[in-house]
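ok, trying the design again with the full structure, not the truncated one.
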């Protein structure tokens, strides 16, 4: 990562004003240059110019050497960083170890949110759901009977026909029935969710990037069965040196040159990390690798829709610009 030569702001401004004054100031009207007589006896000696000509020549020579440095310091400073294009990547995994029944999509296909990507075998999950559903129905029947018994016992207890011990027994039976029904309802909900998760759907619109498995293969629990590149705007991940972070503002415009794209893309500094880290070996030049850097994100404003992640990019950000 490189950036232009920096000078103290006050010195730079004064130097720019001095240079402007020196260039624009008209030369005073002088009398015609006297004719120089060169003695024939000493042809090897250089002719000596009058004092005013020597002073003007020295001034122009000094400006010729100093002007490029001053003009370079007067230009807006920029920081140059290299990084890679990134996109929001969705990795969809199998909830349990199961066999793939079908894959209705192919790599490179554009898909909508909620579209089916992979179907896993649901035979075992359907049997489990039937079992817990039957158990839930039984628990609900027991709960209904326990409520009727409690209502009957509570009425007789108020009439002093039954003792308080009978009422306590009916209360405990009702509480146990309610707990059993709640537990089995939760198991039924989990079984329905597991059955639904065996049909892997896209959580956002985008493009199918990878399908690591094929139909008929058994996927391990947690194994990624599909990778989708979301339609969100891509960004470039770069590392900015600590000595320029204080002069950068979120929202600063940036110019991004992406490998393989002739046109320069427009970008905007989106985020700067709070904590510094060690410099990645590929992020800066060899001279700057020992400096602390901040991982940052530059959002691309006009990126092509087919831009893939991992492509190298060079970012130029003007220091001091931003919101």
């Amino acid at each position: 990562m490189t950036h232009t030569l920096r000078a103290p702001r006050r010195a730079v401004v004064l130097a720019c004003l001095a240079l402007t004054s020196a260039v624009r100031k008209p030369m005073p009207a002088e009398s015609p240059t006297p004719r120089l007589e060169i003695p024939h006896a000493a042809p090897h000696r250089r002719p000596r110019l009058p004092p005013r000509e020597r002073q003007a020549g020295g001034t122009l020579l000094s400006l010729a050497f100093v002007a490029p440095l001053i003009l370079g310091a007067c230009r807006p400073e920029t920081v140059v960083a290299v990084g890679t294009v990134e996109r929001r990547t969705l990795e969809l995994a199998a909830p349990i170890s199961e066999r793939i029944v079908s894959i209705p999509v192919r790599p490179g296909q554009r898909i909508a949110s909620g579209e089916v990507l992979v179907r896993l075998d649901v035979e075992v999950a359907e049997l489990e759901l039937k079992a817990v559903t039957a158990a839930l129905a039984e628990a609900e029947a027991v709960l209904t009977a326990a409520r009727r018994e409690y209502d009957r016992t509570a009425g007789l207890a108020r009439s002093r026909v039954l003792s308080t011990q009978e009422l306590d027994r009916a209360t405990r039976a009702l509480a146990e029935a309610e707990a059993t029904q709640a537990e089995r309802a939760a198991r039924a909900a989990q079984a329905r969710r597991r059955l639904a998760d065996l049909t892997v759907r896209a959580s956002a619109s985008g493009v199918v990037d990878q399908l690591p498995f094929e139909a008929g293969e058994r996927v391990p629990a947690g194994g990624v069965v599909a990778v989708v590149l979301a339609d969100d705007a891509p960004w470039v991940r770069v590392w900015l040196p600590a000595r320029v972070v204080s002069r950068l503002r979120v929202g600063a415009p940036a110019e991004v040159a992406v490998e393989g794209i002739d046109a320069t893309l427009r970008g905007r500094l989106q985020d700067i990390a709070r904590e510094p880290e060690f410099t990645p070996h590929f992020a800066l030049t060899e001279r700057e690798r020992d400096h602390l850097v901040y991982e940052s994100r530059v959002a691309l404003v006009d990126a092509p829709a087919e831009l893939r992640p991992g492509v190298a990019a060079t970012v130029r950000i003007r220091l001091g610009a931003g919101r």
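Keeping the full-length input from now on. Residues 79 and 306 are 28 Å apart (CA to CA).
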